[in-house]
Amino acid sequence: MAIQKNTLPEYRYGAARTMAFLRGQYLLEFWAAWQQAKAINLQLPETDDPSYISLETLLAHALGADRSYLVWICKQLELPDPEIQPRPKIEVIAAQAEGYIAHLIERWRLPLAEVDEKRFYREEYPSNWGVRYCIDAMLEHAVMHPILHRVQLQELLEEQSPA
Hints:
This protein is mainly α. The chain has one domain: dinb family like domain (Four Helix Bundle (Hemerythrin (Met), subunit A)). Helix content is 58%, strand content 2%. It has five helices and two strands, in the order ααααββα. It has helices at 14-39, 55-76, 93-108, 118-121, 135-160; strands spanning 125-126, 132-133. β1 and β2 (132-133) form a beta hairpin.
């Protein structure tokens, strides 16, 4: 999947603009790997992690996390709610994922554009899972999350794909 031209507006902090763009691109790459996995009925390894019960729960995890990162960032920076719709339910997530991903990418475009650079790394806040992050680090986490799951799927695809 080719990375398309960055269509985000100018940001006061260019690194935030780049990370907002990249997380959308990597989310699209994860989606492409997920579709390949679904096409061959990829078997996920056994684990106690509820995100890996099925391909659908993994997709729900990735899309829900992408939403929660921006909601959390906006809350910490006391910005307006980014108005991201809740992720689709498990029963329809595969059918609605493409439209929801487009919605996520659109909703990530603007909220951080007018935030001064210093606000991204001056303070740390507790994440939803208890680890403390500055905003810059949470943005980096948001970029890496879909990469992590894409690579996991690609490795499983290599193992399980018919020759």
